[in-house]
Amino acid sequence: MCLEVIVKFDASQFDNLELENIGQWPAAAKLLLAIFVGVAVLFGGYFFIISDKIDLLDRVQKEEVKLKQSYRSKYHIAANLDLFRAQMIEAEDTFANQLRSLPNSHETPGLLDDITFVGTTSGLDFVKLEWQPEISKEIYIELPIDIEVIGPYHSFGHFVSKIAGLPRIVTLHDFKINLAQSDSETLNLKLQAKTYRYQEEVTE
């Protein structure tokens, strides 16, 4: 024996419904209203409460990752602090040694004498040995020197080698070698030497 329950939907039962008389509404109307209110509460709760919490959680998780990375970096520094201090002292000593290799304003005239001595003892004759205008860089001043000498080719090698051995930093640039006009066996060498002075000495 089959028991069939037939629920008939009567649209007329939703007519003339008033909010003031919710208690008098038909059961179907009350059910639909309850479903609507429940869905509205769920969506409203999600968008106004849960979604903000989810965004906050995402931000906190990202901040947690950054803090962990920062912690690892600081921990690495702290664990190797003695090594870093030793490296800093070594770097400062190296920098100080390099500064001592730069001529100060009182030593630059003597540098021309050193270059002249190096050239003449290498068998070269000087045609030109002149300071050029200083060039200011970020932390140092560049001091160019135009040099022109004449002599045999092998003497040029001795000259360059001896300049590299000077106690002060001197670099050589723009080499040009030509035959001297007076003697086909004698060569003419033009180059520019550069030495450097620490910028701080000028600004004090």
Automatic annotation (TrEMBL):
Top-level taxonomic group: Bacteria
Cited PANTHER family: FIMBRIAL ASSEMBLY PROTEIN PILO-LIKE PROTEIN-RELATED, TYPE IV PILUS INNER MEMBRANE COMPONENT PILO
Species per Swiss-Prot/TrEMBL record: Litorilituus sediminis
GO biological process annotation, one example: type IV pilus assembly
A Pfam family per the record: PilO
UniProtKB keywords: Membrane, Transmembrane, Transmembrane helix
Keyword GTP-binding: no
The protein, known as: Pilus assembly protein PilP
TM annotation in the entry: 27-49
Classification of source organism: Bacteria, Pseudomonadati, Pseudomonadota, Gammaproteobacteria, Alteromonadales
InterPro entries registered for this protein in UniProt: PilO, Transl_elong_EF1B/ribsomal_bS6
